[in-house]
Write a structure and sequence with these properties.
With about 725 residues, the chain is an alpha/beta fold. It contains 22 helices and 18 strands. The strands form four sheets. Strands 1-11-13-12-14-16-15 form a seven-stranded mixed β-sheet, with helices on both faces. Strands 3-2-10-5-6-7-9 form a seven-stranded mixed β-sheet, sandwiched between helices. The chain has a two-stranded parallel sheet with strand order 4-8. The radius of gyration is 25 Å and the shape is globular.
Length: about 725
């Protein structure tokens, strides 16, 4: 970095340092403030919020939840279609406006046959069934065979190898032991913390294996953690984690229309051409079934970190045990339904605050997603009550119930692609609730510009289990036990490292719309199983539905503040600080990976222009923050409409139409998911460093700097 540019960057960062709220360290905004409201508007807003906060009802949430979870409702099923129509009718009755169902015809594979049997050293067949639990009538229903959506079909037999969590380094270890992986069948564990099962399938496919079996080890989400259901929150021995395995980290949505909407007349590619469809056979197992195979394995003992909670010797296999996998999956195109409703704004109806949750579930979906679906229903009812009482927000509030999220984030992606142009003009932000409550620990992920909004709302909503605010309860939660969901990690109030795995993906990564993703987390070992149902939630996860109620209040207050603010409460100094941290982190990976030579001149870092651009963005952000403060004054002289229009465009400027190398659908240059769904910040440079490609690194740094400069120019106009 040049001396002048370096000084400008330091000056820009210093100019905003005092304005940045250090939410990651647990700070809270002053209690009497709500960012973006003039004094007279603040009084009215507090009155509206007081009315709203009295409306959400735990008893109604329980009723909604029981109805939503009464039967299995996988995407494309008659029950899921019925729930979409039920939602539509309820929303209309409550006064929600422009309620309609958007349909898309998408590839939605269902199982016809799934079988796993051991052929050596003895014949045995996996049950692939979950046991009924006394006192839980839902577990007596038959949801059909457990399967992995988008698994290949086939009939393969091979020797079994145990490959830990199925990561590349685990296969490297097996190869180092002299085990030839080609044609073998891998038995691997689901991962806690969460690692996407599709990444495990891709890794096995790349290593030449014939099939992959993925099971839940009791050390991760069973008796190794504590009491199992029905006595506790963890998974019993027969629980099976279903799920999709598409490579939606490459491109989500309908695999046959990658990057464009599945509307009538749309071009569809052949399934064989779809990059997101695996070519390997995959089946989920319970640890009861997996144990039989593990006990039959020979070979060397695996490293201690691979060993699970079963009272057996975990061995690598490769010769003693063989398994046959039979999977027949159809390739049908089925219809999915997105339910959409609006509360039209009174002053800026063209600006929209979007709230969404997915409706489809692998079985009953007690936590995932029906806890969120129940909260969405109660939020719609509460907002409708306000509307009928004479309230109307300044901006439009949009409610959306997505479908086929469990397959490949499908309906949100198709809807986002279909209405991309309008959404990029109109959307203020998207607030996602996938699972509302599996416990008491508040988790939030957001772009840094929305940290302050999350903090202020968490300050003003009471925790479901105490007299404290949610922000106070979060600060005291420490390292409380967490579940299997890919929720926000870390100890701070808001996590600014955004990966994927839920419906916010299309809004952030494809459309450049600021997002928030919120949940209450806790011990949760029945993910995607028959035990994730109403009884688990009402007995274990959230007795009394107190955290469902808190979620409804949180979600509603965030929406009302974004919809009613005189000046949109985006905090771009916080974004500048986040960018600075990300750039420093990724640059360190580059410097750590470089050979250290003492006899060559020091060359300019490829990140120099990135830091310079961040300095310019920080300066523009600080000036804009001053404008926001002035425009929020009682007698504002700065035109608020023009300022708000600029504030809405900043996130869009961080997109690149070419996307990141190898994944053009992912167009955001600050955020993208790793193949595990974990967050990758500054993905273009980060992936170039991982590949050891210096030329690509410099090109990606130039593109990133240009995007940050575009964002600065939007703020400065």
């Amino acid at each position: 970095m040049s001396g002048v540019a370096n000084e400008r960057a330091r000056t820009g960062i210093a100019a905003v340092a005092a304005a940045v709220l250090v939410l990651g360290a647990g700070g809270s905004p002053p209690r009497d403030t709500i960012a973006g409201f003039a004094p007279d508007s603040l009084i009215l807003q507090r009155q509206i919020e007081g009315r709203f906060l009295r409306l959400p009802s735990a008893s109604r949430l329980r009723q909604f939840h029981r109805y939503l979870t009464a039967e299995p409702h996988v995407a494309g099923s008659p029950r899921n279609r019925h729930l979409a129509e039920w939602q539509r009718q309820q929303w209309i009755a409550w006064g929600i406006e422009d309620v309609h169902i958007v349909t898309h015809d998408v590839l939605l594979p269902y199982p016809q046959e799934v079988r796993v049997e051991m052929t050596a050293p003895k014949p045995w067949q996996a049950s692939l069934r979950e046991d009924a639990v006394a006192g839980d009538p839902d577990t007596k229903q038959d949801p059909g065979p457990p399967y992995h959506a988008f698994s290949a079909s086939g009939d393969v037999t091979g020797e079994v190898v145990y490959a830990g969590s199925g990561n590349p380094e685990h296969y490297d270890w097996l190869t180092a032991q002299g085990i030839d992986l080609r044609g073998k069948i891998a038995l691997v564990r689901y991962s806690v913390p969460y690692s996407y099962r599709g990444f495990k399938a891709l890794t096995a496919q790349q290593r030449g294996l014939a099939g992959i079996l993925i099971y839940s080890d009791p050390a991760d989400d069973g008796f190794g953690k504590g009491k199992t259901y029905p006595a506790g929150p963890w998974g019993p021995e027969s629980h099976i984690q279903r799920g999709g395995i598409p490579f939606d980290f490459l491109v989500p949505g309908d695999p046959l229309t990658p990057g464009w909407a599945s509307v009538p007349g749309a071009r569809r590619i052949a399934a064989e051409e779809a990059v997101s469809i695996p070519k390997i056979i995959s089946v989920p197992l319970s640890y009861r079934d997996a144990r039989v195979i593990l006990e039959a394995l020979g070979g060397p003992e695996v490293p201690a970190t691979w060993r699970g909670g079963l009272p057996i010797s975990y061995r690598a296999g490769g010769g003693a045990a063989a398994v046959r996998m039979v999977v027949r999956i159809d390739s049908a195109v089925r219809q999915i339904q997105t339910v959409v409703g609006r509360i039209r704004g009174s002053q800026q109806p063209e600006q929209e605050v979007i709230l969404g949750n997915h409706r489809d579930a692998w079985v009953f979906g007690g936590v995932d997603p029906s806890s969120g679906s129940a909260s969405l229903m109660e939020l719609a009812r509460s907002l409708g009550t306000l509307l009928r009482g004479g309230f109307r927000p300044k901006r439009t509030i949009v409610l959306a119930s997505w479908d086929a999220e469990e397959f490949t984030l499908t309906s949100s992606t198709e809807w986002g692609e279909q209405y991309a142009e309008a959404l990029q003009r109109r959307a203020v932000a998207y607030i996602n609730v996938d699972s509302a409550a599996s416990g008491p620990v508040f988790t939030a992920s957001a772009v840094p510009s929305l940290n302050r909004l999350v903090a202020e709302v968490a300050r003003d909503v009471r925790d479901g289990g105490s007299r404290q605010s949610i922000a106070q309860a979060k600060a005291r939660a420490g390292s409380a036990e967490r579940g299997a969901l890919p929720n926000a990690q870390g100890q701070g109030l808001v996590n600014n490292r955004l990966g994927s795995g839920s419906d916010y993906t299309v809004f952030l990564n494809f459309l450049g719309i600021p997002i928030i993703d919120i949940s209450f987390d806790g011990p949760y070992g029945v993910y995607h199983s028959i035990y994730d149902n109403h009884q688990w939630v009402s007995r274990v996860g959230d007795p009394g539905f107190r955290y469902h109620t808190a979620m409804t209040k949180l979600w509603g207050l965030m929406a009302l503040r974004l919809a009613n603010a005189d000046v949109l409460p985006f905090d771009y100094p916080a974004y500048a600080a986040g960018l600075k941290g990300f750039a420093t982190e990724v640059e360190k990976r580059w410097t750590d990976a470089r050979p250290r030579a003492t006899d060559t001149p020091i060359e300019r870092s490829p990140f120099a222009e990135v830091h310079e651009a961040i300095g310019r963005f920080a300066t523009a952000a600080a000036r804009t923050a001053q404008e926001q403060e002035q425009a929020s004054a009682q007698a504002a002289t700065i035109p608020r409409d023009e300022l708000n229009a600029r504030l809405m465009r900043v996130e869009r400027a961080l997109l690149d139409p070419d996307g990141i190398p190898g994944r053009p659908w992912y167009r955001h240059l600050v955020y993208a998911p790793k193949f595990t769904y974990a967050a990758e910040v500054l993905p273009g440079p980060a992936e170039a460093i991982a590949a050891g490609d210096e030329v690509r690194l410099r090109e990606q740094c130039r593109k990133l700097a240009a995007a940050i400069d575009r964002a600065a120019e939007v703020l400065a106009k």
